[in-house]
Amino acid sequence: MRKPLIAGNWKLNLLQADAEALARQVKAACDTDAVEVIVCPTYTALAAVRQALEGSRIGLVAQDLYWEASGAFTGEVSAPMLVDAGCRYVIVGHSERRQHFGETDETVQRKAKAALAAGLTPILCVGEVLAQRDANQTVGVVGAQLEGAFGGWTGADAQRVVIAYEPVWAIGTGRNATPEQAQEVHAFIRQWLAKRFGAPVGEAVRIQYGGSVNAGNAASLLQQPDVDGALVGGASLKADAFATIVKAAVDAKAAMR
Ligand code: PEP
Predict the structure, then answer these.
(1) Among all residues, which ones are annotated catalytic?
(2) Structural domain boundaries of the chain?
(3) Which of 63, 213, 214 to probe ligand 1 with, by most ligand atoms within 8 A of CB?
(4) Which of 62, 3, 60 has the alpha carbon at shortest distance from 205?
(5) pLDDT digit string (tens) for 94-105?
(6) Cβ neighbours of residue 133 under 8 Å, at least 6 residues apart?
(7) 49, 159, 186, 202: which could join 226 in a potential S-S bond, CB 3.0 to 4.6 Å?
């Protein structure tokens, strides 16, 4: 059974003291073995949050990385540096990076490979924009993103990745996909992985849903058979809302047994 993964993406928010305070609240409310809980602060808050989370099972995650390990790349942060900072996972190809910072399927692939090589688990984000959904292109768009990201991969590497399906029209808009819409795309992603890398890889890879997940809608999304957790933005900045989402994942998992 896949262990659900609940991630809080804090984006470009919180100075160190605020990030540390939120991390302490999350540690008090969300430290469970039933599901995996991780938080993604900005680079500058990684050390403070790492310290705050010490002694808990909650994992530290970075929001991006660069694919070279070191060198003349001013402003960049590499996978070995993130490991050194205590990270277990790294988000790759978030739609905000694709939209504002020129991220492409090719850079996503390079970043994901660099993460794996350093021992980090990439959380690889895919998802369609509204015009593509309205034109019934969702599956084609997500399939092309997977094709671009996973070109030349082995099944052994693919199995180590987490995929986040995040319809772009649902991120930060308060408008989430229905559980049925999410399930449909998650099932497609799992089938794509099974076809490309074999059924065991399709079965093993965790696929998170992201897009305006909150305390009110988390349960119905997390009850879907192919939804293995959530990548949460806005609602992860409030410890009580995030704790409700974690609890919904614990309950959904218990109901599936
Ligand atoms: C995200 O940050 O990936 C996200 C889904 O944000 P929000 O939950 O705010 O839509």
Answers:
(1) 94, 166
(2) 5-256
(3) 213
(4) 3
(5) 999 999 999 999
(6) 167, 169
(7) 186
Q: Which of 92, 232, 238 to mutate to test the pocket of ligand 1 (most atoms within 8 A of CB)?
A: 232
Atom of ligand 1 nearest to the CA of 213: 8
Write the DSSP symbol of residue 233. Answer: S
Mapping DSSP to helix (H, G, I), strand (E, B) and coil, where does residue 171 land?
A: coil
Joined together, the tokens standing for residue 56 give 């808990």
Query: Of the CATH numbers 3.90.199.10, 3.20.20.70, 3.40.50.2000, 1.10.820.10, which one belongs to the domain with range 5-256?
Result: 3.20.20.70
For 2-47, what is each residue's pLDDT tens digit?
999 999 999 999 999 999 999 999 999 999 999 999 999 999 999 9
Residues of the chain with pLDDT under 50: none
Res 140: pLDDT: 98
**Would you call 25 exposed, middle or buried from its count of C-beta atoms within 10 A (0-12, 13-18, 19+)?**
middle
Residue 210 in 3-state DSSP? strand
Report d(CA 141, CA 159) in Å as an integer: 22
The SS3 assignment for 103 reads coil
Calpha distance 204→207 (Å, rounded):
9
Q: Which helix (H) or strand (E) holds 185?
A: helix 179-197
Q: Using DSSP, how many helices (H) and how many strands (E) does the chain show?
A: 12, 8
Residue 77 carries which DSSP code? -
